[in-house]
Amino acid sequence: MKTVCGWLWLVGLGLGACSSPSGPAADEAAETYARRREVSAPPTRRGRILDRHDSVLVDTRLSYLLAVPQRPGLDSATAVALNLLLGWPDSTLARRLAEARPYPGARSPGPIQLVLTPAEAEAVRSHQAEWPELALAEAVQRTYTVRTAAPVLGYQAANAQPFINQIIRYRRGRFYRLRNGGVETYYNGLLSGHRGYLHPLVDAGGQRHGSWAPDTAFQEGQDLHLALDAQLQAYAESLLGGRKGYLVALDPRTGEILCSVSAPTYAPAALTSPDQAGVRRQLLEDEDLPLLNRPAVLANPPGSVFKLVNAAIALQLGAIEPSTGFPCDQSLISCVHHHPAARSLTMGLQYSCNPYFYQTMRALIDHVPDSLVADTVAARHANLAAWQRYAQSFGLDTLLGVDLPREQAGFLPTPAYYDKARHTRNWRFRSIYSLSVGQGEINLTGLQMANMVAIIANRGWYYTPHFVRGVGTGGPLPRFLVKHHTLVDSANLEALVPGMLAVMQRGGTASASSLADVGIAIAGKTGTVQNDEGDDHATFVAFAPARNPKIAVAVYLENAGFGATAAAPCAALVIEKYLRGSIAPRRKRWERRMQYRGRSYELEHRLGRKRPPPAPVVPVPAPVAVPVAAPEGR
């Protein structure tokens, strides 16, 4: 019998069958069939992105583009008339034309395209005869319905090629850090869907004889249902505005991220809209790098909020007990305000006493077990290694696995790190004591800080933080349903809660941000991170309600001063907004002041000027100055 070879090419793929007769007659006949791959159906739509309340945030819709000629340009009278026709203020057309140019004075070969709303497009269409120099076109484009959550929503790479080209041109060294496609990129395959394929066996006459492989099912583009609360996101962004920093809030019970603010903020359409080239250039050239997704890619020293982790590990390893007290010995490390002696862990947290946690960490690192009594160097190495291992179980010094591109891992030092950095194995606690107050070599991302406080809220477990709570009609990706546990016992995490509650009560470092008047018990911890290059950074972490946590928050404001007066009010307002839906009248002044500050920073940002550091938001007694001998404040 002759050898039969069949080759068929379809949809750009070459799939063939070539065989010689062997075996039984039936098998021999089957081997003469050619393999074919046929497209059964292509996907017809890209999935939408919705928030937790099913409000559409991103969709593929018909958009309208107005082509404005550059040569000759519109005269002033014509520009005024066009502004009037479109219902714009007199300067709007000139501003939008400037925003559409990649740099001042740039001229492209063709007209400038401006994106119009349906109402504006209808106004132009109804007067088209009066404006022969203008051309109105329609295009189906990816459309954002909100001006918030830009780093989370992201973009399709195909829609953002002009932006990506600008990144390469302006910020070559930071290309990968600035390129962040958000959930649009991370879930691109699910949003796009995929074609269906048939795999028939075909004889020389074109007749089909079964299949050579299982058929591939057609899949339409799937909608993404985010955990994000669009209203809470917009509110949190209004509080931070043009300031540098982040705010992350998540539901500790599920790991769902309720809002994630990276400030300075910008509109998501700025990276893909054809009339935003000038805006993209400003964002790329801005020295504050607003395009960085700060909660995911920037790792910073956490400051005093890390005392929570240090205390939990010290309890677990037996270095202290909840009733352990230490004197406020400022010869060891400075404490920026006077307070009563911390006679217990609760009081140490309440006052954020630096000497208390210095001595706590020293008891942990310098502990010498009987087995290593003759080798204190080995004992310190073993103790620091244990500290690092327990701290890492809080999701630190590792990628959490959040569903966004380019997440960073942060850093926790190891004994080997200090051996290399100190050029000796014989380093002592005094050379690494900054770890006790969350500074030195410790670096955490915003997502890790929020997850850290969520673990304490849950007394020892967490789900990986994630933005998408449902794909299509299903739930999140399976890995977001896996519960993770820390190495610290729940009893030792429970021992932190009284101190975190005391932080928000009279005498605590954040008592002015208490929500007790509306019946919400917040468990929180303030922090101030020393910054050698300028004003200190303010941090705060919290969860509420303390006994039935529904929200966990982490705030980090660069160059903002004390965490108690800058970061804590932001977190308290977001917690109240989420749990109650509104802000109590007595805190409206906070709200207005912080929103004004965010707007004024944003305005100064646009004008290219820098403001002096702000005054505290909440009128609290000024701290008593003490000579600073070491990093960290309250």
Walkthrough of the structure:
The chain has 634 residues and is an alpha+beta fold. Helices cover 32% and strands 17% of the residues. It has 22 helices and 20 strands. The strands form six sheets. Strands 5, 6, 7, 8, 12 and 16 form a six-stranded mixed β-sheet that branches. Strand 18 and strand 19 form a beta hairpin. Helix 14 packs parallel to helix 20. The longest helix is centred in the last third of the chain and has 20 residues. The radius of gyration is 30 Å and the shape is globular. Keywords: Carboxypeptidase, Hydrolase, Membrane, Protease, Signal. Its main location: membrane.
Quickly describe the structure.
Residues 1-25 form the signal peptide. The chain is an alpha+beta fold and 634 residues long.
